[in-house]
Amino acid sequence: MIQLEDVSKVYRMGKVEVPALSGVDLTIDDGELVAIMGPSGSGKTTLMNILGCLDVPTSGRYLLDGTDAGRLSDNRLAKIRSRKIGFVFQSFNLVARTSAVRNVELPLVYAGVHARRNPARHALAQVGLGDREKFMPNELSGGQQQRVAIARALINDPTLLLADEPTGNLDTASSAEILKLLGALNDAGRTVVIITHEEEVAGFAKRVVRMRDGRIESDRVQRSRTEVTA
Question: How many Cβ atoms sit within 10 Å of the Cβ of residue 46?
């Protein structure tokens, strides 16, 4: 599904060049659950942006389902993001004065889809919040807000789910709840990539890619995985 070949990313700030990725080679197959780890400044966020077609490499190739994303127009990249990729962020990014079900509908609103309510209700049911569709974000716990965000990411039935520090703002019990949900989505066939700096979260993944200074430091399949407990 995902193939990076000698990918580098350099940001230019005036006359200064700042390298973020240097010669990254990475393959992620359909149905994998992968954690990408690294300290601040390691390049993991830049890598996520490229995987999510939010950015393109300065050099090298990123192939998503065989398509070279670096050669696509902004409009084509936007279509790939809306059809193939779901995003989950640390800060939830919910609209404060909008109900859970309407928050989930938002990607369909932007896509110009008129029949939105039933798909949104189905997505909320998938994450165990079928009885909370009329609740506002401030009426939900942190874990429930993240579930709404995951439901929103699922609304277009993406094959790839990118989760950027999905438990970063949650307590231990809520973190376990979200990891179990991501595991269940992976078991159902979705490819899940989690960006994290937490060893506990990485321990939950089936494979861990560690980054440092814009390069992959290690890439290993885990023989034993951390059990998720609340």
Answer: 22
Average pLDDT across the chain, whole number: 93
Task: Give the tens place of pLDDT for each residue, 150-161.
Answer: 999 999 999 999
**Residue 182 exposure: Cα atoms within 13 Å on the Cβ side:** 37
> H helices within the chain, ranges in order?
44-51, 74-84, 100-110, 117-126, 142-154, 172-187, 199-204
Burial of 204 (0-12, 13-18, 19+ CB in 10 A): buried
**By C-alpha distance, which of 108, 194, 109 is closest to 155?**
108
What average pLDDT does this structure show over 187-198?
A: 94
Residues 70, 56: Cα–Cα separation, whole Å = 5
* pLDDT reported for residue 111: 80
Domains within the chain, CATH numbers bracketed: 33-58+74-221 (3.40.50.300)
Tokens, residue 102: 């309407």
Q: What is the dihedral of CA 185, 191, 197, 202, to 10 degrees?
A: 70
Report d(CA 229, CA 227) in Å as an integer: 6
pTM: 0.92
Rg (CA), the chain: 18
